[in-house]
Amino acid sequence: MRAITEKRKAMKWDWVLWIVLPILVFGLVEALVRTTTDRIPLWYGAAERVAERDRVDVIFVGSSRVLAAIPTEAFSETVALRTGYRPRTLNLGRGYTTLIEHYLGLRNLLLTHPRSVKGVTVFIEAPGGLGFADHWHDAWVNQQYQLLVDLLRFSDVLDFWRLGGDNIWTKLRVTARFFMRQCALVNRRERIRELWLNQLIPALLEGRTPSLASVDELGKDLEGPKHATNIRSDDAALRNARALAQRYGAEFEHSKVPTRVWAGSVMEDLVRLLQQVDGQLVFFVPPESEVFRRGYRTPLHQENMAIFAEQVRKWGACLVKPAFKYTDEDLPDLWHLRIELASAFTQMVAEEWLAKCESRNLVRTIRVSQ
Fold it and tell me: Whole-angstrom Cα distance, residue 70 to residue 95?
């Protein structure tokens, strides 16, 4: 009898060890991630938190080219010197993003904080003077699943499956992560891997206190190139980036696909979205290396650019082409402007915008503030 009782006790402890203990460990690690790595929101999550506290006047969106080329401090300072009003400016440019993701992020921001973004001016890159003609049947994700997951709402998941051009495995991964996004260990695993492996282990080996947060203050990742952590600059990364630029540039130069269908495009929907808050859309030409610029000189792309410029006029938007002088040496990886020139380029963008685009929303903001 005693043997049976002891066996039952042992079985209870086995149950504790195999069920309760793993749950406890999982809970502790989850809590650690939430209070460190996931404590301060990034990207559009950070923008929404900023809009909770303050007005947002200007937003830059686009790829890592935008992130690398636009320090928000330089833009706000230039506008303040010319107008006497210092706009609150956010840089939401990110590498490996799509226009659809930026649309969803802006939509969420405008819906949750319409008063804070009333009359906002959104700058979006138009390489060579040609905007992105993405449609909803194109891919929604560019490798980084977690970026889209953070922006989706329940109704978007249905549209993602119905309209998105992503393959079935991408849709399954995104959907699974969407329904598990309340779990920081799952939804922040890329951030955990980057911070814990790159900072935690080296710090412990060196005997110093590690920092397990991506930023130490809300909005720090929305200030431009000073936080361009997703743009690698080591020798191997530069070689790979240059080779990729050469390949993409050659494909673009020899492309025979016209870019002329703007009806029903994501960009057209973005124009309508901004109209709901009296917003202004401004396209600007970012610095690009010769491997890309020569593609814009072909007859096909010259015609595409002319059609796009007319479409911009019909939308009531504005196209800014800063007369900024640079060479390929100023884009070390052939993609991104070196940080030493970013402020000068941004100043020219601001001045061209003030001179050419009437800046009607900024004028309205100044009057309200006064």
Answer: 14
